[in-house]
Amino acid sequence: MGLRGRKKGSNGEESKVLLLNIAAEEFAQKGYYETKVSTIVKKAKLTQPTFYLYFQSKEAIFQELVNSFRAELFNFVEKSRLESGLEIGSLAEKIKIGLTAIFSFFVENPNITKIGFFLTPQAEEVKVNLATQITDNLTKEVEDGYFQTNVDLRTVAESLVGIMERLTVTKLFTGIKEPESLADDIVNLLLFGISSTTNE
Amino acid sequence: MGLRGRKKGSNGEESKVLLLNIAAEEFAQKGYYETKVSTIVKKAKLTQPTFYLYFQSKEAIFQELVNSFRAELFNFVEKSRLESGLEIGSLAEKIKIGLTAIFSFFVENPNITKIGFFLTPQAEEVKVNLATQITDNLTKEVEDGYFQTNVDLRTVAESLVGIMERLTVTKLFTGIKEPESLADDIVNLLLFGISSTTNE
Amino acid sequence: MGLRGRKKGSNGEESKVLLLNIAAEEFAQKGYYETKVSTIVKKAKLTQPTFYLYFQSKEAIFQELVNSFRAELFNFVEKSRLESGLEIGSLAEKIKIGLTAIFSFFVENPNITKIGFFLTPQAEEVKVNLATQITDNLTKEVEDGYFQTNVDLRTVAESLVGIMERLTVTKLFTGIKEPESLADDIVNLLLFGISSTTNE
Amino acid sequence: MGLRGRKKGSNGEESKVLLLNIAAEEFAQKGYYETKVSTIVKKAKLTQPTFYLYFQSKEAIFQELVNSFRAELFNFVEKSRLESGLEIGSLAEKIKIGLTAIFSFFVENPNITKIGFFLTPQAEEVKVNLATQITDNLTKEVEDGYFQTNVDLRTVAESLVGIMERLTVTKLFTGIKEPESLADDIVNLLLFGISSTTNE
DNA sequence: GATGAATGAGACTTCATTCAT
DNA sequence: AATGAATGAAGTCTCATTCAT
Do both C84 and C109 map to the same domain? Predict the structure, then answer.
């Protein structure tokens, strides 16, 4: 084959990654339906058949981005948990670490976050999973006697997810708050409510 | 028959309402893009030209539903506020009444709620407005000395919106909770957090 | 029936004439295809079914206007010919009288002229007839020895039609020239050409 | 044919040209509105999406034909002028050369001529331009003392345009006369009128 | 004489996707 | 690995025309 088929040193993997990145941006910006395959390839300076060399369909590339969101988020959060003094710390601390990790991932990957956490119908599933996990954690803490409450824990977990969702849009993506400070606020609110009189 | 200006009950108005209802259901279920005008009219046992007799475009009927969501929600909440002993009551009570009103409207109008609060890009605006209003109310309470807090009120407001959003999907639309009980939970959580040890 | 069915004293004939006039204006302005039945009836403050009470189709009302152009033009020209000292006069005089009559009709009936002389495919036929008639007249004059020429008379006739066509658009409808003065110019040009050094 | 720097013979350009030719024929025959994109592509043995690969819209392909009429006519006339002994010759000769060139272009390109000189609303503009140009030429001749007249030159020019218009339809497109002989007739008529007693 | 409501038919256009090279 | 060219399938919308009253 030699150099004949090559163009500007690009190769297959590069093209695929390029397409994924552009697609992520487009989907994040315009949503699934307003994103056209023709636009993606144009921005990548490629052609439509090339697109289908790497992805079975428009749906498929979208799904790939959704999956990468899920996988990378999981990895990132896992890694953060391990790095941060492991399983010790108070409930507040633990929640804070988790939230900070998630938010950090979100700000660093806004496009796939928009796709995987907001755009896709599977976002619902992601959120349900997240809520379940949170519920489990809370439940364990209660069982272990670390704190007690008269609020339904599932509701708390889902509320937390809702808070994350909304503040990600209004505070994080707008650059108004940083992951850590946002996590702080949320933990504070969640633990003590607005009637709190604690000092920081 | 008399009343020359109005043609009440004439078939035309009926057809329009019919189309609006079916469209609301379709949009709520499948989203804007997967909803086809052809499907709407088929379900209404009408034809496509008839659709365009009442709506300028698919976009237009969608917008009409969004607008009706906004207007009706506003009316409903306003009415609820007036009916409920007017401006009196503690902060908790006031929030609870407001939330209950909103949730009641949501359960009673799930389709346009999905459309106007979740589907449309304008939902963002709705939520921002809602958060602003809540922020204003909270701020006034603080200024009036009814309570004090060290949490940023805008963040609280936005969190509340996020909680509403999420619990509407998971608890309200699923039938797991009723408006009032849901409002109760939220107020509880928001005021005292999960560390609360208060008894009801 | 009494007065019950009546509306503002309008009756059938009136409505028909109204529709014809509005249609003439619309067709003249926008052409056949850009003229919509819905627009015509709206401007007439009537409804579409009413339109079909008087005309079998859009095509039909258009045809009616074309016919009325042909008939009225014929009448008008005939009348002019009779009124103007009948068959006497030089060739120049005769042509001038004929042209003035036609141009007068055109300025007074711009809408149906546009329709019947420019818009409709049948305009071709009208022009061919006109050219034939003119050719006949010229031929007779030559045969009667009133003048001689070495130009093909059919070509002259068709040229005259072309001149009329164009000057109607550029001079008559724009108000730059009056029928008589326009007829004058044309006769002058046609008889003597631009090399003419005759004085009026 | 020339090489023109284009992808000669490539299938894409061929398809575009094919579509243009068929479209020209269709438009010329049936007019803008009665010409359907579906018919054009069927005759080209292509499909509708292919049409939109080369033209943005039905309107656009029509405009492309109009533009090509204007450009090619201009080129052709320009070329003819240069080829024909340049600026010398009597007025009659000059007009004759110009008319012959135009008529030659017309017979050789009947379809785009019908479109650009008769069908499109822009034809009016073309004719006005033509008349202006002719007026300028005539005026110069008069100023240079080559001939004198008492007829308004703009009117003469517009008459000439009218004559061209009509004779193109009746003599040229029907094959009754050739460009040169037609130009001859017109010049004769225009210069001397029907009273001419000159011998050929 | 008139109309509110409805429709048959069809036009233009778009887009994801594939064929052949 | 890549592309020029093409298309199947479908969707939105328009308009002249009619039905039932």
Answer: yes
| Residue D128 and residue D32 share a domain | no
Indicate whether C5 pLDDT > 70. Answer: no
The CATH number for C114's domain is 1.10.357
Domain final residue, candidates C34, C55, C76: C55
Please, is C188 exposed, middle or buried when counting C-beta atoms within 10 Å of its C-beta (0-12, 13-18, 19+)? buried
Structural tokens at position D52? 């939109």
- For residues C49-75, one letter each, b for 16 or more C-beta atoms within 10 angstroms of the residue's C-beta and e for the rest, the string is ebbeebbeebeebbbbbbebbbebbee
> Gap from C35 CA to F14 C1', in Å?
13
Structurally, how many domains does chain B consist of?
A: 2
Determine the protein residue whose CA lies at the shortest distance from the C1' of E9.
B49
Q: Are residues C92 and C132 in the same domain?
A: yes
Segment A22-53, tens digit of pLDDT: 999 999 999 999 999 999 999 999 999 999 99
Residue A67 near residue A100, CB atoms below 8 Å: no
Alpha helices per DSSP H over C35-109: 37-43, 48-54, 58-83, 91-108
- Examine chains A and B and say if they touch (3+ CB pairs below 8 A): yes
Do residue C22 and residue C104 come from a single domain? no
D17: domain range? 1-55
Exposure string of A123-155, with b = 16+ CB inside 10 Å and e = fewer, is beebbeebbeebbebbeebeeeeeeebebbbbb
For residue B200, is it within any domain?
A: no
Between CA A50 and CA A22 the distance in angstroms is 14
Whole-model pTM?
Answer: 0.90
Q: Examine the domain organization and report whether A120 and A187 are in the same domain.
A: yes
In 10 A of CB B105, how many CB atoms?
21
Residue D61 placed within a domain: no
Task: Please report whether residue B101 resides in a domain.
Answer: yes
Q: What is the mean pLDDT of residues B64-71?
A: 97
- Residue C142 is predicted with a pLDDT of 87
Give the residue from A103, A194, A195 with the most B CB atoms within 10 Å of its CB, the best one to mutate: A194
Give the integer Cα–Cα distance in Å for C87 and C98.
Answer: 11
A173: CATH: 1.10.357.10
Count C/D contacts: CB-CB distance under 8 Å.
Answer: 121
Q: Is residue C199 part of a domain?
A: no
Burial class (CB in 10 A: 0-12, 13-18, 19+), B156: buried
C142 in D contact zone (CB under 8 Å): no
Q: Do residue D39 and residue D78 come from a single domain?
A: no
C155 interface with D at CB cutoff 8 Å? yes
Within a 10 A sphere around the Cβ of B116, how many other Cβ atoms?
A: 25
- Tell me which residue in D33, D128, D159 faces C167 most closely, judged by beta carbons: D159
Residues A125 and A188 in one domain: yes
- Do A112 and A175 fall within a single domain? yes
What residues pair up with A7 in beta bridges, in sequence order?
Answer: A10
State, as a whole number of angstroms, the distance between the CA of A26 and the C1' of F6: 26
What CATH number is associated with residue A28? 1.10.10.60
From C14's Cα to the closest Cα of chain D, the distance in A is 32
Residue B18 has, within 13 A of its CA and on its CB side, a CA count of: 17
B10 CA to F1 C1' in angstroms comes to 65
Specify the range with the lowest mean pLDDT, choosing from B174-178, D47-51, D94-98, D99-103: D94-98
CB atoms within 10 A of CB A74: 12
